[in-house]
Write a structure and sequence with these properties.
Blueprint: E1 5-16, E2 19-25, E3 30-35, H1 37-48, H2 57-67, E4 70-81, E5 84-94, E6 99-106, H3 108-118, E7 122-125, H4 126-131, H5 136-143
Parallel strand pairs: 4-7
Antiparallel strand pairs: 1-2, 1-7, 2-3, 4-5, 5-6
Helix pairs in contact: 1-3, 2-3
């Protein structure tokens, strides 16, 4: 993986016919990653810090990480192949003896959920960011008064 990355955030979530559209980007460009409807709901809950009746799978993962002194350092969306995005979860484990960094291959939806839960940075590889279609106009229309997101 090239070290050149672009900082992005989750800019919006829109239910869609095939699942949920996550708008990811920055002031320069926004692109869409389609995820399962449940993952869209989970990511939205983490972004809003919504209380949950019972721990979700990502809450469990976070608690296991805490138990072993592991933190999510960052998430990097690395590639797009055959309409499927790929991502890496960068973890750090530190104790009194050493600091260890581990990169784990993971679905972008899981990476984004963990990043949202722990308020950690999200990056996209620069070559991928240049390649993806800019969906900023769609997001802007969605956020206008009377746009699709206000019909909840």
């Amino acid at each position: 993986m090239k070290n050149e990355v672009v900082s992005v955030q989750i800019r919006g979530i829109l239910p869609a016919n095939s699942g949920c559209a996550l708008f990811v980007g920055n002031d320069q460009k926004v692109f869409v990653i389609n995820v399962e409807p449940q993952m869209g709901a989970v990511i939205g809950m983490f972004l809003r810090d919504a209380p949950k009746e019972r721990p979700l799978t990502h809450d469990l993962i976070n608690r296991v990480f805490q138990g072993f002194g592991i933190t999510v350092e960052r998430v990097v969306i690395t590639d797009l192949k055959n309409s499927t995005y790929f991502a890496r979860l960068i973890l750090q484990q530190q104790n009194e003896v050493a600091r260890k960094i581990v990169e784990v291959d993971a679905r972008p939806s899981d990476c984004l959920a963990l990043a949202a839960a722990q308020k950690k940075p999200i990056f996209v590889s620069a070559p991928l960011f240049e390649q993806v279609e800019d969906m900023s106009e769609v997001l802007d229309k969605m956020n206008e008064p009377g746009g699709e997101s206000s019909d909840e």
